[in-house]
């Protein structure tokens, strides 16, 4: 498989966004969820998006945001793609008339294929690790054998990925893309240049 896409999530600083872009990331993720240690303000997000070079996608991550909150953020920040990481219904996701991906937290016994099929309007589906009470960014991997081989949407693999295991994950799952946050950090919300470049190098080698 060639051209596995990559997203560096939990960006809180302009320098980290530019670092991700320079390393070859296709997208950066901005977390609009106040309980997250990687949450950004509207002002931070605007500055980061404005600094991005061409062809790097800005993704806004939301967790069960109210329509008022989400509407205000979309009015203020020119995001390219939305990522719904809570229990948002398909009708809610579709209602914004903006490209989106839906995150699903995977645990044993789930019919992942059926869950993916429910979000017909999504551009893709991000599969993350289920941890009770934690919507994402757990730093834990799930059983990749639970990923359906013939999913109806492009699969973005997340959850506990690092430079050390992303090649094995790509070889097993054959995803459209991979998503990393904690695996390339020096501290929560602060990225590590060496880890980002190591991760991106592993992705490129695995996907070529």
UniProtKB/TrEMBL annotation:
Pathway connected to this protein: Amino-acid biosynthesis; L-tryptophan biosynthesis; L-tryptophan from chorismate: step 3/5
InterPro entries in the cross-refs: Aldolase_TIM, PRAI_dom, RibuloseP-bd_barrel, TrpF_fam
Cleaved signal peptide residues: none
EC nos: 5.3.1.24
Catalysis: reaction(s): N-(5-phospho-beta-D-ribosyl)anthranilate = 1-(2-carboxyphenylamino)-1-deoxy-D-ribulose 5-phosphate
Any GO BP annotation: L-tryptophan biosynthetic process
Keywords attached to this entry: Amino-acid biosynthesis, Aromatic amino acid biosynthesis, Isomerase, Tryptophan biosynthesis
Gene Ontology MF annotations: phosphoribosylanthranilate isomerase activity
Pfam families: PRAI (PF00697)
UniProt enzyme class: isomerase
SUPFAM superfamilies hit by this protein: Ribulose-phoshate binding barrel (SSF51366)
Domain N-(5'phosphoribosyl) anthranilate isomerase (PRAI) as annotated: residue spans: 7-201
Family the entry assigns: Belongs to the TrpF family.
Protein name per UniProt: N-(5'-phosphoribosyl)anthranilate isomerase
UniProt source species: Pseudomonas xionganensis
Record gene name: trpF
